[in-house]
Design goal:
By secondary structure, this protein is an alpha+beta fold. It folds into 3 domains: 2-55, no CATH class; 70-161, Ubiquitin-like (UB roll), CATH 3.10.20; 182-262, no CATH class. 40% of the residues lie in helices and 18% in strands. The chain has 12 helices and 10 strands. The strands form 3 sheets. Strands 2-3-1-4 form a 4-stranded antiparallel β-sheet, with helices on one face. The termini are far apart.
Length: 266
């Protein structure tokens, strides 16, 4: 039996109130075939979440080595870039078996964690488990990862984002700059970040009007002092548009504004 919640946070909150349950994402799997519904109801009411829906594995005859000692290696830090890697053999047989792995490790250490997870698959008594896939990831600040992402690339990306002073701005830069070149070197791009980053602004127009860099080039303040009448009639949005056609680029930021970069050619 599987208890399916609306989110991973809800599943975790309930799991902390129950005994002998295994959490996989937003799903809780009781170690026993039956579950104490009274205890479950009390736990759900205590943490204030919606009562879970009940699901059943597609295949229930496979042996399992539960309890899977995921605590020995699973990454639980809320801020660390991490990936949830699942055993495809177990998945194809109706079982959810995987682990959250610290993606800032070196590629060989990530691979070692994957092999360790596969060695605990409930299907190992029936077949060798070698295939895996990334089914989820966290703290990559808007970056998209593929199911079979290159571990070398993934490790470098995770390290750069984790150690960046502003991970969101760094992610915006990498997403922008990597599209300009065919074979992006994440570490090299990270080193170039400071040479191209012009800050977070409310808008492109805000950057044009308030940036010291633009002021040094065009001396808007002196112009406004000498030609107050004309300065009131300038379409600053149009001026910003022209500057961002050639010379600067912007990337939309969340929850508001834009990150501005000097134009990058690779």
């Amino acid at each position: 039996m599987q208890l399916i919640f609306n989110s991973e946070a809800e599943a975790l909150a309930v799991a902390e109130q129950l005994y002998n349950v295994q959490q996989v994402g937003k799903i809780l799997i009781p170690a026993e075939k039956t579950i104490d519904y009274q205890a479950l109801e009390l736990a759900v009411n205590l943490v204030g979440v919606t009562f879970p829906t009940l699901g059943f594995p597609i295949v229930s005859s496979l042996k399992s080595r539960l309890p899977f000692p995921r605590h020995e290696r699973e990454c639980t830090d809320e801020n660390t870039p991490k990936i949830y890697v699942a055993c495809l053999s177990a998945y194809n047989n109706g079982h959810l078996h995987g682990i959250w792995i610290d993606a800032t490790q070196e590629p060989e250490d990530i691979e070692d964690d994957i092999k360790w997870m596969l060695s605990w698959s409930p299907t190992t008594d029936y077949e060798a488990c070698e295939e895996w896939a990334i089914h989820d990831y966290e703290n990559f600040h808007g970056f998209s990862l593929r199911e079979y992402e290159n571990l070398q690339y993934l490790s470098k990306l995770a390290q750069v984002l984790y150690f960046a002073d502003d991970a969101d701005a760094m992610a915006a830069w990498l997403n922008y700059a990597k599209d300009v070149i065919n074979d992006p070197d994440i570490e090299k791009l990270a080193e170039e970040f400071g040479s191209y980053y012009c800050g977070h602004w409310d808008s492109e127009t805000d950057f044009v009007l308030k940036s010291d860099e633009i002021e040094e080039i065009f001396n808007w303040k002196e112009f406004e002092e000498k030609f107050k009448f004309w300065s009131f009639h300038i379409n600053w949005d149009s001026v910003a548009h022209e500057l961002f056609i050639q010379g600067y680029d912007s990337v939309r930021a969340k929850p508001y504004g834009v990150y501005v970069f000097r134009e990058y050619y690779g």
